[in-house]
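TEACHING EXERCISE
Course module: macromolecular assemblies
Task: Read the component lines below, then compare them to the predicted structure of the full complex.
Student: A.B.
Group: 4
Components provided:
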Amino acid sequence: MTPETPTVEMHPQRWGDPAAATRLPDSALGLVELAFGLQDTPATTDAAPPARSLGDDLLAGLREIVGAEHVLVDDATRALRTRGKSTPDLLRARTGDLADAPDAVVRPDGHGEVAAVLAWAVEHGVAVVPFGGGTCVTGGLAARRDGFAGLVSLDLVRMKRLLAVDEVSMTATLQPGLRGPEAEALLAGHGLTLGHYPQSYQHASIGGFAATRSSGQSSAGYGRFDAMVVGLTAATPTGPLDLGSSPANAAGPDLRQLLLGSEGAFGVITSVTVRVRRAPAETTYEGWRWPSFDAGSDAMRTLAQSGLLPTVIRLSDESETAINLADPASIGATEDPGCLMITGYEGAASEVADRRAAVTRVLTGLGATPLGTEPGEKWAHGRFGAPYLRDALLDHGVLVETLETATFWSNRERLYADVKAALQSSLGEGSLVLCHVSHVYETGCSLYFTVAARQSGDPLAQWQAAKAAASDAMIAAGATITHHHAVGTDHKPWFAQEIGEVGVRVLRAVKAELDPTGILNPGVLIP
Amino acid sequence: MTPETPTVEMHPQRWGDPAAATRLPDSALGLVELAFGLQDTPATTDAAPPARSLGDDLLAGLREIVGAEHVLVDDATRALRTRGKSTPDLLRARTGDLADAPDAVVRPDGHGEVAAVLAWAVEHGVAVVPFGGGTCVTGGLAARRDGFAGLVSLDLVRMKRLLAVDEVSMTATLQPGLRGPEAEALLAGHGLTLGHYPQSYQHASIGGFAATRSSGQSSAGYGRFDAMVVGLTAATPTGPLDLGSSPANAAGPDLRQLLLGSEGAFGVITSVTVRVRRAPAETTYEGWRWPSFDAGSDAMRTLAQSGLLPTVIRLSDESETAINLADPASIGATEDPGCLMITGYEGAASEVADRRAAVTRVLTGLGATPLGTEPGEKWAHGRFGAPYLRDALLDHGVLVETLETATFWSNRERLYADVKAALQSSLGEGSLVLCHVSHVYETGCSLYFTVAARQSGDPLAQWQAAKAAASDAMIAAGATITHHHAVGTDHKPWFAQEIGEVGVRVLRAVKAELDPTGILNPGVLIP
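Instructor-supplied answer key:
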């Protein structure tokens, strides 16, 4: 089975569906002017990728493998496969910088064609960037091309079948090119759901979820994507991998966990078998007010450690709560808004009722004030919208970006303080640093930061300095450089510190074994 | 903190505490005679390891590292570090075969000494077998020594400290030499538990649990050991690994999951940081009768897929149930015993009560007959005792061994039938093949087989043929060669089929990077 509707291509210089692009509402313009001063920083409309370095003679072999209509070399398609959607990516795209454009976009259909494309690339010394949804925010789609004859984007858009459903084992086998909503629509036909809703959900792909260890907004209920995967197949330049003989086993190191998070550097994931659940009959989201970020975080810990989690649980710090409430209706409210928590429940009606009642008892007992379903519905309605707002702010000279990390509970306060201080110190007075917790575990949680600042004359350098300061703070605090955004190229120096010299050598050894000529995503992931 | 009591050494030819060795009770002798015919097959008491091939000049360097008193070369100690506790291991030991004895037993204390021992071994071309509890049942302690100057057993018995407890994050950092009860006793001092109770619990070690991906009898409540690990350190011949920056992250492949299950072939695990839980205030175990193995298995699936599992859940098939009931009091009962399920609940009193009530509703609704707490208490009382019974049966010419696998729910019936048929066909008429399910997941479960047969003149060959037939059936059914016993040397041919040629090459590449001269557990794990 394949999806019924065509894939929506994102705008080459902005996030998401071009039809959904937005300008800042007038009501917000005033606030933004007050905070940052309005600047007019429109994107150029005049950009073309560099001349392609792969000639038609070379591409003939590729056309034989996938069919001529699936080797695209037009400028518009090449522009659409240039980098991902981090703010640095967008800043570059907005200035018309398409230096990282692939020479061609190739669209194989099936494991065999992927393997054949890799063999062709090895033979001709061409670098290959696997492309799923294009939503990467860590530079994972900007491979190095030095030393290669050229670079092709291996677009998985034709591989979007639901290959198998096993309703006894509650697993589904999906091709990697399926976008989030496409996978959910196909599973819904069987009354099933994956329950994986990262902010990139509308455009990101199953293969990307696996290759980057994505984690969704409902992770408290459905788990991280890597925890859903029970099997996968991959094509590597030196042969196929087919892993997943059982839910769990003691047959050596878990090689599935070596391919998960491998970001296209070890192989191309050609199918993923995931645990699925019954589609929820009921979904409810509601809001809670906490007097402080610490109090709310402690409550999340209590829930996680008592095995009593909602499906969704997220907590904004004081600054993010204040900004979220900064709409015209809320302005002038004198009451301290505290910290907003969203809890969500998805499942059968009785399950939702039972769990909601139990969580409500805990949260109320710990000092939360119930805010009813309105804040929850508002969050659910806007849950995929923030990246559109980023574009609107970039149009007005505001630098906006996010970064995230995770640590153990006992280290949460320190990590929060240190990363926040690093960002504020780097971005200077007038910058905003917001934070929320949106993924919790028995032993710890994630911290997700959003920053906004008036753009300097070189916003890219401005951001890179702030990002480096924040990343240094994460590593100094013993935390991870990324909870769910992967390594890409942007995180490599800190990733190397996180896993140490021996860890880096292990990854290089695996890379050398699976991809001895290094054609796969050169420069991505491996320090 | 370290344990207060000295480590109990297991008998070199039998399982467990020599003081607890048992003979078959008279009541059982009759049954065994009826089933298999009694034979007298006593173990030899006359055995000595071969002359050691590492001279004192070479060992001087080792003595400098760990202290002379921690390099042991006496025959008794060498015999105690020869192989593990599989039935083939015991059959060999019972005939006095100590060919696999190490030349010396070295007992380092701490990561630094472990690293120094590895450097010494690399320098002198000596093979090293890491030794935790010695409970391995897959040949993982019988390393090859060809091509090496000799072989030392790296005994972690001095490394048994509780290094850190973090009661906010609910983690504990443990040294690898701690035996199960020692770790639990230290954690109990903080009101905590790991909750990991494999049948080997009384003798197996924390390092072994990690290196072999152990799974305990309470896995439904506490998870597999690999799921408990949030961090680890390891010493490898080419440097240290220190992994675990967060509960979960997207920082590349999960290298923790590459060391877990590495069976001492990549490095020596020198500490493990694990998720811990509050020690349960209440524990209750009870029994249920199911009309068939299929009906009980389907109920386990229903529970696992509704997120409503007891802490312990296990189900014996018809044969195992009948044998378990074959004590003098039960004999003559004409009622079909069906299939016995044990459910156990551990936690705070209210938690236990709530969960028990909910599970009871489901099981009763699906057709189970409650048997009260007596079968549960009986199981709990005898839960670590089966290996002692194996020795008693080996004394009487009965071949007894276990093997286990796992698969997805939709494949359970096939796997059960195929493995059972393979064992019965190989072992012939009069053999017993029993099975239970003791580890369940949303997507599948384990199958654990116990066989008993009259020993042939060559019981080792007899078992190896049956084991090969069963292993072939597992791989043919697409299942795993081992759910929780690891690969060792016994499973290597099937492990290679399970992960495929590319998977094997990945493991070899990691091995070559971390242990380029191959001193670590040569011949173990890596096909």
